[in-house]
Amino acid sequence: ARLAGALRDEHSRERRDALSQEAIELARRTGNPFALAYALDGRFAAILAPDTIEECLALASELCEVAERIEDIERLAHGHMDRCIAELTMGDSSAAKAALDAADPLAERLRQPAQLWQVLGAQAAFALADGRLNKAEELIEEALAFGERAQAMAMPVYRLHWYMLCDFRGSLEQVEPGIRELVVAHPVRPVLRCVLAHVQARLGRLAESKRTFDELAADDFSAVPFDMEW
């Protein structure tokens, strides 16, 4: 399961798919529900993409069931957050919000920075989607305070939150340098170049935006992996 996660940035999910499936099969054969919960959680992250979303929702649901049965609060929180991601990807924002609401008190019970960061970050995204911009700003800052202690992607997520917030407020020029820094720092994440192209276009710098876009579009968009960020 961990090896599948370590291969997260490979464009092809072939090895992630095989390894994470093997992890689940091994866990089922042991009859160990703790191992199964770990493997289910690992496979969700390893294969998440538009064409696997129904399986991912099933994985998240089973993870919640197993984790609740063995009273593994950490895996249960992960299961609800996985459900939130899957439901949102499928377009059911009400179900996604319900899953997030279920994860919130679990994160508070755990008091671990990783889960608190994930829940607060998702709450910030919902606040942005609802147009509650002042609340979103508050949640964005709260999320970063925990994320800096737990998650290497905390700063990219923070800047992406601010990118959306500033777009709504009409002040994108203040986040453009930070987005450029992310593109340089995380070259294997083309979604960040997509953001840069959008920022450049919104700022009226169309020639720059087109250059960024053309780099992504080369060879039938081969630079953009078919994964959770697609």
Q: Which features does this protein show?
A:
globular, 77% helix, mainly alpha, 0% strand, single chain
Give a quick precis of the structure.
The chain is mostly helical and 230 residues long. The protein is 77% helix and 0% strand.
Structure description:
The chain is mainly alpha-helical and 230 residues long. The protein has helices at 2-6, 14-30, 33-47, 53-69, 73-89, 93-110, 113-130, 133-147, 154-169, 176-185, 190-202, 206-221. Helix content is 77%, strand content 0%.
Itemize the secondary structure elements and their pairings.
Elements: H1 2-6, H2 14-30, H3 33-47, H4 53-69, H5 73-89, H6 93-110, H7 113-130, H8 133-147, H9 154-169, H10 176-185, H11 190-202, H12 206-221
Helix pairs in contact: 2-3, 3-4, 3-5, 4-5, 5-6, 6-7, 7-8, 7-9, 8-9, 9-10, 10-11, 11-12
Number of helices: 12
Give the structural class.
mainly alpha
Mean pLDDT: 95
H/E series, N to C?
A: HHHHHHHHHHHH
**Fraction of helical residues:** over 70%
| Residue runs with pLDDT of under 50 for 5 or more positions | none
Q: Rounded to an integer, what's the Rg over CA atoms? A: 18 Å
C-alpha end-to-end distance: 23 Å
- According to DSSP, the number of beta strands is 0
